[in-house]
């Protein structure tokens, strides 16, 4: 029976010594290329522009002629060489580094000894160039436990995603990337796929092994777009990838010319050093080492993929054992009772510890997610608060600007009103002064106010001032001659017009009248002002529409507020001579002349109301406005043809 109750203590002591020895043997030179981790492999990627058609079996590889013996793994490897010779300064620089470190080359050979025959079997089975067997020199310096900062692990330095893609399990019990047998099969399959993708251009294939297919494809596309060559040596790549391929070509060149460079090659027979055995179920590793009759350190060196003291409960259950120990191991395994394969107490403790670790990890992950979510909520709230504050500030600024514009408009309107009133008062003062001068001149020089030149019938819209000017007399003379109590006179009244016998007086009167007309032309109250007698129902709006004015202008002419009410019989001053100039002012409200009115439809208006308001029929209104066919709507501008006799106009 091979069960030892104290094997846990012994296992831990041996493992500690193994770690100490391993650390002491770690070389000073870099054993793993560090830097940007390669992009995860994508099985659906196909390089779209192959330099040459590829063969799925890569059967077109041409082996280099090798005349040496194949009795060592190095001789066998050299016989499988197929990469073309490359003369490049980057290769020479890497070769010089290797030549300057012969001790490193010796250590590389010692570490590779247990694995080279197995690796060459896979290289030859997949028809790959023999130089690729040395790729672990570049990747891990043939240290199966190597681990990089980019999370790559094992002889072939798989990152987790690519390892899983090629079937390498990774859990708390087992890491297939560190399993020499499983990772070698996965790496050679990966390299075979890359060689096919890039049409047998192994420089591009190796570069993509380090930097990723997608990244190499993008670099090729950039060169193609810029009209540059698309071979590996012409691509713009990270420094690590630019050194990666030259490093492999340099070590391959060194082994092929070991005698030339005075580098001794250790004699490693071309025979299988180890073999794979499937134990079928979970097995403690110290028990396996004891049954193989070999030190645990040496056993673990061949099986670094297992992370605990036994194989994984759910597999894999294969072990790598020296060929010389294989038969003894199988015999001892057959005699070992099944229940003694694993120390159940220890196994249960490990399972309990694993569950605790997973629970603690889940709790930590949950707390971390909650903290992240809380931080995100706080950031969102801060951003929303800042946004609300910015909006409030913008509204305050806009409100202040509107208030300033309103105050400015009010000041401008007040100033304009003041100037307008001042101008009106000045014009009125000048007219009154001129009227007084005119009356005084006529009064002083008129020979006989009692004599008349004849009679004159007052026309619609005429004033005593205009009549006096036309007949070269004064308003005062007209009032005295006709016994008028005021300066106003009704249309149709027949006046006695006094005569003037003095020619000099007449000339002076004409000069004054001319000045009066000139002043009246420039004033806001023309001489041909008319009067309108307010009818029942009249408003500023319909009266102003009759004379094509605005309600505000009509109110200003009469010194009234637009909000004030009109009284029936009230007389309004209407400046300017319109089409009703020849009619008496009293009859303006009953004129039957046809007029065109522009009316804007207001909210709530109906067609019946508009027709009634302007005294027109709906048919006439539609004839004048083709847009009514689309319906009556607020803001629509209407043309209304009506006569002036309608009382609402």
UniProtKB/TrEMBL annotation:
Instruction: Specify the domain of life of the species encoding this protein.
Output: Bacteria
Q: Does the keyword Signal apply?
A: yes
Q: Which organism is it from?
A: Crenothrix polyspora
Which GO cellular component terms are attached? Answer: membrane
GO MF annotations, alphabetized: peptidoglycan lytic transglycosylase activity
Q: Indicate the family of this protein.
A: Belongs to the transglycosylase Slt family.
User: Compositional bias (Low complexity) at which positions?
Assistant: 580-593
Q: Where is this region: Disordered?
A: 358-454, 574-593
Basic and acidic residues compositional bias: what residue ranges? 358-404, 414-449
Question: Which Gene3D superfamilies does the UniProt record give?
Answer: 1.10.530.10, LysM domain
Q: Where is the signal peptide?
A: 1-22
**Which keywords are on file for this protein?**
Signal
Q: Which InterPro entries match?
A: LysM, LysM_dom_sf, Lysozyme-like_dom_sf, Transglyc_AS, Transglycosylase_SLT_dom_1
Instruction: List residues of the LysM domain.
Output: 454-497, 530-574, 597-640
Q: Does the keyword Signal apply?
A: yes
For this entry, the protein name equals: Membrane-bound lytic murein transglycosylase D
One short Pfam name that applies is: LysM
| Single GO biological process annotation from the record | peptidoglycan metabolic process
